[in-house]
Design brief:
Blueprint lengths: L8 H14 L4 H12 L8 H11 L3 H18 L7 H7 L6 H10 L5 H12 L3 H5 L9 H27 L1
Helix pairs in contact: 1-4, 2-3, 2-9, 3-9, 4-6, 4-9, 6-9, 7-9
Length: 170
Amino acid sequence: MGQDTKHSEEVIGNAAIAWLEERGVTTKDIGELVYFLQKDFYPELTEAYCEEQVKLVLEKREVQNTILTGIQLDCLVEAGGAREPLQDIIKVDDSLYGVDEVLALSILNVYGSIGFTNYGYIDRIKPGILKQLNDKSSGKVHTFLDDIVGALAAATASRIAHNRKRIKES
């Protein structure tokens, strides 16, 4: 059995949020994506509520670990630190390289299968911050980050849907 890290959940959670912000992504940005996904289903929904729900998703250790791993890989490639051919595959976000999506799917698993359809939809149309993260002209590598942000939004939308269903049933 593996050893637990010496870092507390708070330290890891704070790092995950800080690393997102360093890469230009805020909880507000992700909340806007969640709102985009859910507004037609819940007319009373607000962006502020969506952002609150994003923060709750970000409290999950599995989510934090995925964020830290993906951003680290993007930064490594951005600095030219990966070996070829992986360096080029990640840098250009090769269409046949699916490891970035597979890593992001681990976030969706935390909130059930409903997130997969939301993720596929938002990944295809790339609204809001996702459009910026996919702009290769910035010189930044966001191969993993764009999928992680999309998965965060999809997982949060799933969380909202599950909670709304539970509230209606009780």
